Amino acid sequence: MHKPLLLFAILFVLFSTSCNSDTKVQSSATTSANADSASDIDGYSAWISQGNVYEVNVRQYTPEGTFKAFEQHLQRLKDMGVQTLWFMPINPISKKDRKGALGSYYAVSNYTAINPEFGTIEDWKALVKKAHQMGFKVIIDWVPNHTGADHQWLTSHPDFYEKDSTGKPVSPFDWTDVRQLDFRNKEMRDSMTAALKYWVQQTDIDGFRCDHVEKFQMVFWKSCIPELKKIKNLLMLAEAEEAWLFNVGFDMNYAWKLFHTTVDIAAGKRTALSIDTLLYTRDTSLPKNVLQLSFTSNHDENSWNKADYGTMPGASHAPFAVLTQTINKTVPLIYSGQEEPVLDSVSFFYKDTITFKKYQRAGFYRTLLSLRKNNAALSPSSSFKKLATSNDAAMYAFERERGGNKVLVILNLSKKPQKFTWKEQPSAKEWNNVFAGSKERVDQGFGIEPWGYAIYELRK
Question: Is the pTM value of this prediction over 0.70?
Answer without folding.
Answer: yes
